[in-house]
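User: I'm putting together notes for a lab meeting next week and I want to include a structural view of one of the chains we've been expressing. I don't have a solved structure, so I'd like a prediction I can at least talk through. The sequence is below, exactly as it appears in our construct file.
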Amino acid sequence: MLFLFVAIAVLGSGSGDEAARERAVVTARAAIAEREGLKLESIETEDIAPREWPDASLGCPEKGRFYAQVMTRGYRVRLRVAKTIRIVHVSGAHAVVCGSPFAAAAVQPEPAGEAHQAVSPEPEAPAQKALVNQAREDLARRLSLAPGDVSLVKFKEVVWPDRGFGCPGPGVAHPQVPQDGVLIVLQAAGRRYSYHSGAGGSPFLCSNPDAAGTR
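Assistant: Thanks for the context. Below is the predicted structure for the 215-residue chain, given as structure tokens.
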């Protein structure tokens, strides 16, 4: 098994040309199609970016499994299936599906003209800083990125209009009781993601932002 991963690492260390990118997309789509029993035409490509991992796990190790400690080059491919996003890491003919699917509605394109604007300063209060770090680490895990690749765009204390914390679930009626909370907007790989928190709970990725809250 060890020599197989070494071989994969070597195969994934190409020049990163357009043909290699296309093969990576094909491999990623095939992996999702086989894993979830989907038709290839139902899987759309969101984006692809070159990556390099410190071992043959491709950045998504399975618990209790050992991997060859060899630098492995490949691609992170983000795919869309209906209203959900999948992340797949590819090196050569080897593909690893990373993490769980998350709602595509939670992903917002970076507004035009704002790509180079300064991001929000990090909050100084320990409790606020902890919330930002929780959100950043969660998004980094979902996207298979380093936390340092996730920027803070906005941190705002708000009052949500109800216990849905500005993120109502489909068909769910929440008690209309104002709730103190926070809105955290993060940016990664040219996209923005909204995290909501309320009633002292941990921030969560909001797939269906509704009320913006007041303060």
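A couple of points you could mention at the meeting. The chain has three helices and nine strands. The first strand starts at residue 43 and ends at 53.

User: Perfect, that's what I needed.
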